[in-house]
Amino acid sequence: MSKTLYLMRHGQTLFNELHKIQGACDSPLTARGIADAQQVGRNFREHAVHFDQAYCSTQERASDTLELITDQPYKRLKGLKEWEFGVFEGESERLNPQPDPIRHSHGDFFVQYGGESDQQVQDRVVKTLQTIMAQPDHQHVLAVSHGGACFMFLRRWLPFEEIQRRQIKLTNCAVLKFSYDAGQFTFEQCFQLAKA
């Protein structure tokens, strides 16, 4: 029987607003990040979307986002953490390299600076979410993670060209809906809040 995963990016943070690289380091949600997360919670309730289980990364911006969406118990997992960027943490986003034209990501660039590769992030997040969804009492699951981590997870199940064609944008509080069966995820839809 197919299960459903709602994989969400956290709300806007101070570093997002300041265009700083934010991976393993953390910064607080902004007023907009708080309001957006609350709106996502209202949207779920209005559409009668309920969760058997809820998870988030161990980073505060993810747990704060989840707590604004639902008051149900949840678990924090390191496997859902953001891509680690090594010495680039907290620096300007202008220092990010251009995406690799073949891998359509930062590839191995950050490894030499103490960070992770795209493949390491993808493998970590995929394994974590497969383990979560394989549990018998997990039919409808919410997991709050991060932009880079969510993108690499999506890339495992949807070709980059299809991501472009569908114009999927992982803005703050974007929600990716997947169905899950026997270790495999199928992308269904991306929900985004309308921005003023």
From TrEMBL:
It holds the Pfam family His_Phos_1. It is an enzyme of class 3 (hydrolase). GO terms for molecular function: hydrolase activity. InterPro entries: His_Pase_superF_clade-1, His_PPase_superfam, PG/BPGM_mutase_AS, PGM_Phosphatase. Keywords: Hydrolase. It comes from Lactiplantibacillus brownii. Its EC number is 3.1.3.-. This is Histidine phosphatase family protein. The keyword Hydrolase applies. The keyword Amino-acid biosynthesis does not apply.
